[in-house]
Amino acid sequence: MPKMRAVGLERYLPIEHEDSLMDLVLDKPVAGGRDLLVRVKAVSVNPVDVKVRAPKRKERVESPPRVLGWDVAGVVEAVGPECALFEPGDEVYYAGSLFRPGGNSEFHLVDERIAGRKPKTLDFAEAAALPLTAITAWESLFDRLGIAQDRGVNDGRTLLVIGSSGGVGSIATQLASAAGLTVIGTASREESARFARKHGAAHTISHFEPFVPQLQALGLPSVDLILCLNDTAQHWDQMAEAIAPQGSICSIVETDERIDLTKLKNKSVTFAWETMFTRSIYQTADMIEQHRLLNEVARRVDAGELRTTLTKRLSPINASTLKQAHALVESGRTIGKIVVESF
User: Fold this and answer.
1) d(CA 304, CA 127)
2) Domains 3-130+278-341 and 134-273 agree in fold
3) Rounded Cα gap, residues 177 and 158, in angstroms
4) Backbone dihedral angles phi then psi of residue 158, each to the nearest 5 degrees
5) Minimum mean pLDDT among 30-34, 36-40, 141-145, 332-336: which range?
6) Overall CATH class of domain 134-273
7) Residue 256 neighbours by CB distance under 10 Å
8) Which of the 8 DSSP states describes residue 105?
9) Can you give the residue ranges of every domain in the chain?
10) 166 pLDDT band (50/70/90 cuts)?
């Protein structure tokens, strides 16, 4: 059977451990059903990669080894017999599924309904920086928070993005400002504040200081909407205080701590979670919405309306380089996205 190179793990270890990620040789997969077989050109490393790879409370051993990686750009090598959206030779980008092998491999299988056509104006590394963050930002804003895409509808409305300089934040800020919202981004240092303003934030505040006094200094007694991309439990009380009556909050950051939803009751505030893997995990009837979403993101990129947030390239795709990328993401001080390209 044909083989391929990949990077994976057998045990969940600190990134400094020599076996935290390992170079592997695995069987090359075969496309069936609605799967695309993609020749991987570039992959991005996200907080989800770090969380999945991190040590677990109860030791687990993966046999066969587990391959991570949930941001891919590449070229369709082959298509399954039920495919209708792509053909061999098409350039694609996507985030894949948590419950299938990841994209840190020379060849990768993905359901065509969650893949999009790569933006023509971007190279593979620039494109690989986009899928997971773009899907998460899009679904958070337009599906969970119910923001209209018509600029006129959103005039005068405000959105607070907590963690605005990260991968999701820098896409969400662009999308929200393009939709006519006034975006206030939080940042931990001036470098990240500048990055947020560069991508569309009208104002920035510190997420290490109380929100309301900083908002009041901007002439804002509250905000209509909040997107939390950083430590839900830590910021919960601040969000509950800053949100306007009948406002909405969406978070993408899970927590083991209890959060008091009753703090939102008197204001009749809506709270929603966002996980971009929901559609692929549950094989929902609307899975194809991610295909359409990614195609629209590509259209906006090619039209100059949306920018990739790639800030660092590493090469080649192997265990050593991916360890470096994991360590950078794990530091919590990255701005934008880190991409690893070329086997």
Assistant:
1) 14
2) no
3) 10
4) -120, 145
5) 332-336
6) alpha beta
7) 5
8) B
9) 3-130+278-341, 134-273
10) confident
Residue type for position 281: I
Write the secondary structure of 152-164 as one string of H (helix), E (strand) and C (coil): HHHCCCEEEEECC
* Residue type for position 186: T
- Given the structure tokens 């040789």, which residue do they identify? 25
pLDDT of residue 152: 82
Q: Which two tokens stand for residue 182?
A: 């006034």
pTM for the whole structure: 0.95
Q: pLDDT tens-digit profile of 213-261? A: 999 999 999 999 999 999 999 999 999 999 999 999 999 999 989 999 9
Residues 6+ apart with CB under 8 A from 303: none
The tokens for 253 are: 């950051």
Distance CA 252, CA 139 (A): 11
At the top level of CATH, the class of 3-130+278-341 is: alpha beta
Backbone angles phi, psi at 35, to 5 degrees: -80, 145
Reply yes or no on whether the pLDDT at 333 is more than 90. Answer: no
